[in-house]
Fold this sequence. Notes:
single chain, two-stranded antiparallel sheet, mainly alpha, 3-stranded antiparallel beta sheet, 47% helix, 11 helices
Amino acid sequence: MVHAPEVEKFFKRDGGALDSTSDAVDAVNVLKGQKGGEVSWDDASVFDKDKDKTQFRQYLDACDRVKNFYREQHEKQTVAFNVDARKQYAEKTRARMGVWEAIEMLNTLVDESDPDTDVSQIEHLLQTAEAIRRDGKPEWMQLTGLIHDLGKLLYFFGAQGQWDVVGDTFVVGCKFADGIIYPDTFAGNPDSKHPIYSTEYGIYSPNCGLDNVMISWGHDEYLYHVCKAQSTLPPAALNMIRYHSFYPWHREGAYRHLMEEKDYQALKDVLAFNPYDLYSKSDEPPSVEKLKPYYLGLIDKYFPKEIDW
């Protein structure tokens, strides 16, 4: 494993705090979601049909903490920040290592700082992948489940905080959608008062397509760019990675005025993946050593031995 020297200082960050915030965000999304031959990859999920989804942390328990997190995220995710974040991503390589090495790195950085965690990061990822595998979905989707949160390494690669790593994502450069969680917390974002960025279309044109909009920077967008450039994963997998936290779009129905025809297929992709992302965390912890050879084989099918991070 090779990593840039300038990222070493970020390895001392409190990974447990990031994981705790991420779990609280997921808990809120779980509870908000309760309102409302070969198995095809987009068939309805089966693994969770008998699962009591009310057993996840209740919304009000997470409410204050999550709202404070979103207030910071919503105030700081500006057009200027997002342009700069993409520029920084393109200009430097933070590390060079294999995908399984990256999984182990995330596991170590988060769990060593949180000794009381019940389930490790690597177990969380395997739970998602195994739920997809049990439902008979194809190998590329199993691998997507395994890696979909690897972008959280961004926290240890120079992110400004938790707010530019985790949390629901949204479009910047146009009016902040009403379907975004805690929309009132955008009052402190200068873009909310910008003469162009605050309008319905902002810097975009009708039905320009989601490929042509800036989605708030975080672990989804980061990993999407890593995988798009260096893997042979199919477009559906890239959609699942890029949009799995894009709740204002895939659950609340926002941004239809920006979508082009192919984005409706992307929406279908994400909705097929979403239950595995949210509801597999309560499953029994899997055996890492038993499953490792199988998933190493999947990684080898879609990734080179080492990639740039």
